Amino acid sequence: MIHATEHFDVLIVGAGISGIGSAYHLQNQCPDKTYVVLEGLESYGGTWWMHRYPGIRSDSDLYTFGYRFKPWTSAPIATAQEILKYMGEVIEENELRPHIRYHHKITKATWSGENNEWKIEVTKTDSGAKLTFTCNFLWMCQGYYRHAQGYTPDWPNMDQFTGTIVHPQTWPDDLEYKDKKVIVIGSGATAATLIPAIANDCSHVTMVQRSPTYFFIGSNINELADQLRQLNIPEEWTHEIVRRKILFDQEAVTKLSVEEPEFVKAALLEGVRGILGDDYDIDTHFTPKYRPWRQRLAFVPEGDLFHGIKSGKADVVTGEIETFTPAGLRMKSGEEITADIIVTATGFNLSVLGDISFCVDGKPVDFAKTVTYRGMMFTGIPNMLWVFGYFRASWTLRADLIGDFTCRLLNHMGKTGNEICVPEWRESDQDMPERPWIDSFTSGYMERSMHMFPRQSDREPWINPQNFKRDKKMFRKSPLEDGAMRFTKSRSRV
Fold it and tell me: Which domain holds residue 175?
């Protein structure tokens, strides 16, 4: 069947937390623009729709992970279902649903300088039908990792294990772990979430980690929010006040982690010691070699992971895996660990712009050879941006800022009669150094993938700061006509 090509002013890719927020900003700040949201999955939510492992929850507080325009009214750390409910309310309250197309997987994006538009090739995942869309501006909100497959290292003899191996990212709905012995490989937020969620039902859970992670233990409440509600402060005010307080505290902690790392380290470890006791080997199992905040700091509400360990339902083994065995794992130390199920909570496979094939005027795009403009656009790529958030703060904070900047950019182009915007190095930029896309975050899933990502430099606008305070100033106050963004009118107007 031949399908007619549909055209929109703006095409948003992805109906996750970024895509839904971007649609809201576009609809409210650029009401004259036509738009569509294309989503490859069968529903909205992205990560929160795909990930089905037990206990899945945010590891960022929802006062900052939630949108700035819609107050969050529940506990700061929320379950996937609570987040999906919140996103659903945003969709319904703002009448976004008619603009979203599900089961639309993008395979190729081609820019034509002759037509001043993107051609988007799509496959319907429910029918196999091939569709084509065109748009003037492409707004990429598809995330930064492959949804279909998580990262699992290739250990020796994995095929010899007689039990079940599963990655949390593709957790089977019918996996039966009750009264089973389970090994969870990994030490990040996923492992810290999964283990307490299943520990009471399993006969035993062992967390196997190559190296420890820093964890922050706290209560899943926000005392300031509760106090403001007792005073009958409007939820909009409460939301904004609490957001500002959290951001202030986060900035202070990040600064302290850099200036006084040993102090922050001691405070974090004291929280763990307060639950596990002085006799537990904190040094081996929960004292990382890296400085706090060089990797993501995982929040453990109510210390549930550590209470599971203290109860004996879970334990920790730290060291390198030598091989899988028919019955489980053998460590390089010689220790044997038996299991019925092995969960590889070992991270993501990162992807650059959804692994979509991009071409500009017939030439394939290698994003690793581009330099980023404000951590959202790329040299030589017209009318396209990528929403990429933070690792030390909530992703949505940056998604909101990029939404403001993009709408300001689109409105400026409309007023000036320009149809094309493309970042290009200025003459004064030619000798600037190139740096990795992210150079201050050492998590394994980032380090093994940085070679695929665009580069950045050492000054505006060629930076990706990963700093909300700096981004806020950059996105809201920086001039659009900065010499680095080349604007072009259509040929008919030239």
Answer: 158-344
